[in-house]
Design a protein that fits this description.
Helices cover 69% and strands 0% of the residues. It contains six helices and no strands. Helix 4 packs antiparallel against helix 5. It is globular, with a radius of gyration of 16 Å.
Length: 121
């Protein structure tokens, strides 16, 4: 029984690491975007949001990349997780996660961009 628990914990940790590796890191360009909405935002603030997103959300589902949804959809998704599904995260964590996801949601989907560019040639 103990070995099954250890295996489950290791599998979950491995999944969290694999999912977080695909998430983009914040850059100075992102900071400029974030500061338009949240003055004083730093790279560290956005990276905290990335970390909170990874820690708090991988326990229940796979992580979506920020560009998979428009900014307003992220607010709705986090509200729904908290209110409809009973996810307990602090306001600070929710705001940190949202700042990261909303800011980076403007990132183009590189695969879609590449496909579009190839189709135009």
């Amino acid at each position: 029984m103990t070995s099954k628990l250890v295996f489950s914990v290791l599998a979950a940790a491995s999944l969290a690491v694999a999912c977080s590796a695909a998430l983009p890191h914040a850059t100075d360009t992102h900071v400029g975007t974030a500061q338009a909405r949240w003055p004083g935002t730093s790279v560290q603030d956005l990276e905290r949001g990335r970390s909170d997103y990874t820690k708090r959300c991988t326990g229940c589902h796979h992580l979506h990349l920020p560009h998979e949804f428009p900014p307003d959809a992220w607010q709705h998704a986090v509200d729904e997780m908290r209110n409809k599904h009973g996810v307990r995260i602090s306001d600070d964590e929710a705001n940190s996660i949202l700042r990261y996801l909303i800011t980076l949601s403007g990132e183009p989907n590189q695969k879609a961009e590449t496909s579009r560019n190839a189709a135009q040639r």
